[in-house]
Amino acid sequence: MTEFAAGRWRGQWIWSDRTAHLQSEDAFHIDLDPDYYDRRVLFRRTFELAEIPATAPFRITADSRYILYVNGIEILRGPLRHGPRQLRYDHGDLRHALRPGLNVVAVHARFFGRHNAWWAPSPATLTLGGGSLVAEVRVGQEWIGTDEQWRYHDTTAWTPSLPIDTVSAQLIEVFDATKLDPAWITPEFDDGDWKPAKVLRDYSHGGSADGRPPSEPFGSILPSPLPHPIPTPVPAESVRTAPISWTPGEPGGITLALAAAAETAQPEAEERDLDLSAGPRLVVADFGQIVAGHVYLQLHTSGNITVDGALTELTTEKGLRHAASFRYVARDGDNEFVREDPCGGRFLVLALYGTGTARLETVEVVERNRPRPDGPAFAASDSDLDRIYAVGVRTVDLTAQDAYLDCPTREQRAWTGDSVVHQSVDLVANPDWSLPRWNPQLCAAPRSDGMLPMVGVGDFADPAFVAIPDWALHWIRALHNLYRYTGDRALVADLMPAAEQTLRFFSGFAGPDGLVHDVTGWVLIDWAPVPVHGTSASLNALWGRALLDFAELADWLGDGSRAVRSRAEHAALKRGFEAFWDAGRGAYREQLRDGAAVTEHAHAAAVCARLVPDERLQRVEDLLLDRDAMISRAMFLQPTGAHGILPSPESPDWDTERLVVAAQPYFRYVVHDALAQLGAADRIGELVRDWLPLLESGPTAWREVWEGGSYAHGWSSTPTRDLITYTLGVTPGEPGYGTVRVAPRLGALEWVTGTVPTPHGPVTVEVRGNRVSVTSPVPVELVARDGSAVRHPAGSVSGEI
C-alpha cells in the first residue's frame, strides 16, 4: 500500500503509564522488572464518520501481542512470532467494519515480559522494549494514529502467567469475566474513567526523541509477509457430562485435577443444561480429530460459576500433563470466552463448579492457520494412498500458523530443521507459498559462530541455548527448495550468507581426513537411536548434501568461487567417508569403530550427498529396501540418562551385524529422496503405506514417531510430498517451474491423478497404465521409465512412459 511508504509512521508508540522498565539513567544498559510479565492493557479511540470511506487502510503492531477490534468486531490478531529486533506489522482495510456516526477502534495489547516458545524480548531502551502498541488508520482524509487521544485501562481481569515448564512452554490463562465489561470494544461503552495513553518517545543512546517508528530497539518495522488467516470454527462432535468430586486448586494444577476427575468419572450424558447446585460437573467435548486454534465457549450462567479447562490429545494424566489450560470465572448471564493463545488437541476437558446453573451454548475451536486455497489434489487406484495424502495435508495445516510448528498440541515451537517437511508439503499441495517462503527467513539468524538456532524465534532461539547442528543442514535443504520451486534469485541470495556461515561452522570441525569430528551441540539426526558421539556418518553425509546444495545455489547465482570451495570440501569429505565402509558387514557403520550400529540414516544421506561409489549403489539400495532387517525404536521413549538428558545409544542392545536402525517418520524424507535418486521411485507408493498403522491412533493427523509422541506432528507428512513428486512425478524442470518435469512412477498402481500448484498456475497430470496426460501452463518434460525425456510445449500433452 502506498499509504505505508518507508519513513516515520503517523501513529506513535503508546502504553499505560507503567511499562516494565526499572528506573535507570544508563542509556546503554536497561533493566526490566522481572515481575512485570504477561501484562495486558486495553486501548480505545472513538471518532465520528459522516459516511463510510471508500477505503480505510490500517497498520498495527505491538510488543508483544494485540487483538484489534472495530465497533465490537474482531478484525485481527498479531503480530506474527518474532525474536529480538524482528517486530513486523500487520496491515489491511477496515472499511467493512466502519459505520456512519460514532466508531471505535479498540485494542487488547499484551506484553509477555519473559520469553516463551514463540516470543523473545528485544533489548530495552530507556522507553521501549517493555510493552508498547502502535497503529494508524486512514478514514476519509484523516489519519487516526495512536497518541494521547487514545484511552487506556490497565486491566486486572487476567492473572499474569508464566510457561508451565521448559518444554511445553504454554501459558495458563486465568480470566475473571466479572472484572471486565464485554462492551469495552463497542462505541457505546463509557470510557470516562479510563486514562489518556502515554506516548513512548525514542529515548536511547542516539535516539530521536520521536514517538513514531522507526525506533530502537525494533529498527525498521517491515510488513508481515503472511496473509491474514481466515478464522474457521470447528464445533465439537459430542459434548458429554458427568458429576465429579472437585476441589479447585491453584491454576497451575488445573490439568492434573482434570486428569484425576476424568479417571473417575464416566462422561456419557449428552447434556448442555447443567445444575451445579447438585455438585461440580465434568464435560468432555470430543472434536473427533486434532484441532488447533482458539478455544471458544458460549455459555449462559446464573450464579457464581467457574470453568476450568484444557484442550488435550488424551484425557489421561499423561495426555493432560502438557495441555493448554485455562480458568474462566463467568459473569451472570451470557458469556463468551476465547482462549487468547492458540492450542491444540482432540478433547476439551472442562470442570464447571460453583453455585447456580450453566448452559453450554457453543463449544468450538476457532482455527486460524495459514490459508490453503482449493485446487491441488491427489487420487490413486489405491484409496489408502488418497487417505495418506489427505492426512498429511491436514497435519501440515494444523502446524502451519505464523510459522511451521513442531506440533500445535504441546510446544508450538518453530523448529529450524522440522520445517523442511512442512515446507515441502505446502510447495506441492498449497497454491499459497507465503509461508514456505517466510519460514526459512524466520530461521535465518546465525549465532556469532555461524550456527543457526534450533528454533526460529522464542526461548530456544537464544544464542546462549544449545543448537542442533544437523537441523541447520536441513534448513539449507529448505533453501534449496526455495531455489527449485520459486526461482526467486533475490530471496535465495539474501539467505545465502546464513547458509555459508552454517557450512563454515562445520568446516571448523573438519580434520585432515575431510570428515567433521566431535561436532558440538545437540546432534540429533532423528528420534531413532542413531549414535552420534565422536564422528557420525549421518552427520557427515548431511553436511555433504548441504555442501552440494550450496554449490548448486552459488553456481545459479553466478558465484563460482564459493561453489568451487564448497565442492572442494565435498571432494575431501567423499574421500574420508570411505572410512565408514565395513566390507565384511557390507554397509556403512555409523561410527569409526568395529561393531558400531548400521543405520538407514547414514546410507540414505550418503546417497543424497553423492558419497557412495557407483559399485556400491545397488548394495545400498538393497539395504534401504530390506524392511525386514530394520529395527524401529524411538529414542526419546527410552529411559533418560543422568540429569534427564536424552540418552545417546552408543552401546546398542540389538544385533548390529544383522539389523539396521530404521528412520522415524521425519528422516524418511531423506530415505525416499535417496531411493528416488537410486532409481527406485516406483517403490515410494508402497513405502508410504508404512504410515497406515499410525491411523489407528490418530485417524486425521500423523503421530510424531512410529511408536508414539505427539498426535499432530507436521514433520511426519513426507508421504504427501512423495506421492506428488515421485508417484505422480511432478517437480520443477527448471528453477521457478520454467518447465515442469513429469516422471510418473506408479509401481503397482493402476492409475493416479493429481493437480499441483506452480507460480504460473496449476499442472494437472493423469496416468493410466503407460499413458500420461498433462495440462500445464509451462513447457513439459515428460520422462519415461527408462530415463529418456521428451520436451513438449505448454498446454495439453499426452504420451507414453
Overview of the structural elements:
α3 packs across α4, α4 crosses α14 (718-728) and α10 packs across α11 (617-625). This protein is of the alpha+beta class. It is built from 14 helices and 34 strands. Strands 11, 15, 16, 17, 18, 19, 20 and 21 form an eight-stranded mixed β-sheet that branches. The chain has a six-stranded antiparallel β-sheet with strand order 5-4-7-2-10-12, with no helix packed on it. The relative contact order is 0.08. The mean pLDDT is 95. β8 and β9 form a beta hairpin. The radius of gyration is 28 Å and the shape is globular.
Topology of helices and strands:
Blueprint: E1 14-15, E2 39-49, E3 57-63, E4 65-70, E5 73-78, E6 88-93, E7 101-111, E8 132-139, E9 142-145, E10 151-154, E11 173-176, E12 195-196, E13 198-199, E14 222-223, E15 232-235, E16 238-243, H1 254-264, E17 273-275, E18 281-312, H2 317-320, E19 324-329, E20 333-338, E21 343-367, E22 377-380, H3 383-399, H4 419-429, H5 434-443, H6 469-486, H7 489-507, H8 537-556, H9 560-577, E23 581-582, E24 587-588, H10 600-608, H11 617-625, E25 630-631, E26 660-661, H12 668-677, H13 684-687, H14 718-728, E27 730-732, E28 740-742, E29 751-756, E30 763-768, E31 771-776, E32 780-783, E33 789-792, E34 795-800
Parallel strand pairs: 6-14, 11-19, 25-26, 28-32
Antiparallel strand pairs: 1-13, 2-7, 2-10, 3-6, 3-8, 4-5, 4-7, 8-9, 10-12, 15-21, 16-18, 17-21, 18-19, 18-20, 18-21, 22-29, 23-24, 27-28, 29-30, 30-31, 31-34, 32-33
